[in-house]
Every structure is written in structure tokens, then in C-alpha cells.
Specification:
Pfam families: WD40. This protein has strands spanning about 15-20, 25-30, 35, 40-45, 50-60, 60-65, 70-75, 80-85, 90-95, 100-105, 110-115, 115-125, 130-135, 140-145, 150-155, 160-165, 175-180, 180-185, 195-200. It is mainly β and about 200 residues long.
Length: about 200
Amino acid sequence: MLIPDKKLKLHSSDIKDMFITNDIFITCSRDNKITISTKDTYKERIFNYGYLNTLDYSNDIIYIGTQSGFIILYNILTDKEYSYKVHNDNISVLKVNSDTIITGSWDNSLKVFNINNLNESIFEDNVKGSVLSISLYKTGFIVGLETGAINFYKRENNKYFYSHSLLIHNHPIRDLFTNESVIHSIAHSLIKSNDKCIIEY
């Protein structure tokens, strides 16, 4: 059994997402706050957009998805923030992929934006159930759904399109991890037993 050698109290509510490398550790929570830790500094920042549910980090900018459907861009060097209303409900997951941002929501949709223009999506898809997880995969990405299915999306000539779907769980897929052709998925239910799956595809 793994035993933590250090515990940190960072938030007054549950931590919804985190980003970690050797250089930086970022968390977000339902207390509307993010924490930013490096080897030499620690910083907290509060935002007034409701719960902060998901985040990603790239090139000194933290991208945050909120309960109210906003994406917040926060520059850690300048302390400036910008916000964009992109969904009608909670943004449950957000991923940055070089020149694009992929978002999933409880409004049963996923969207892809050019990282330099969040005013208009370059791809949208309405799905069956809430989008709960996203992972970059081969030439595109995959999403885990409330229904227990994984949807596959491809990118060709800078355009995205839906490929196909696999139903692999009986519970909502809370997280996805990919390694070349191997997909790891974790499904979780508050009232039923949990399950996990590893598929090679």
C-alpha cells in the first residue's frame, strides 16, 4: 500500500482537477480557487465564475473550465484573466492540444476551439449523455461519456470528425489514459460498484 509522505491542505472544498510536472503543480476546486506551486513560490487565485471543475496548462497560461460554462484563461506571469462563455452547462473536462482546446460539458456536447480564438468553435458534436473525460489519442482524441461509451474523433487536414463509438462500461467513464494503442478507462458510480478497463485498439 502506498503511504503519502506529505499532506497539504490546499482547498476548503474538494479538488476537482490538477496539473503536475517537475516544475509546477496546479489545482482547482469547488471553492472557486486555484493554487499554483513551484519549487520556489506558492500562489492562490480566486475566480468568480462558480465552481472550477477542470484545468490544463500550456505556455504560462492556465485554462480553466467552470460550472457556469465559461473557459477562463489565466496568465500566471501577468496575472491577467480572460473569460469566454462556450457551454450552456458545467464544463466537466478540458484539454489543450498544441493549437486547439477541447471541451466537454454536461450539456451533452463537446467542442474544439482554435487556441487563439475562443469566440467560435471549429468543431462541435452533440452526444448521448454528459462528456466526462477526454484524452488525446493517435491523430485525434477520445471522450468518455456518462453512458459508459467512448467516442473516437479523428483529425485530418486540420479538420475534426466523428469516427465511431465503443460501449465498454456500465457506469460513467470518469477518466481516460492512453499509451500508443492502449486505452485505460476508469468508470465510477456513486450507487453501484466501480469498474476499470484496459483495451488495446
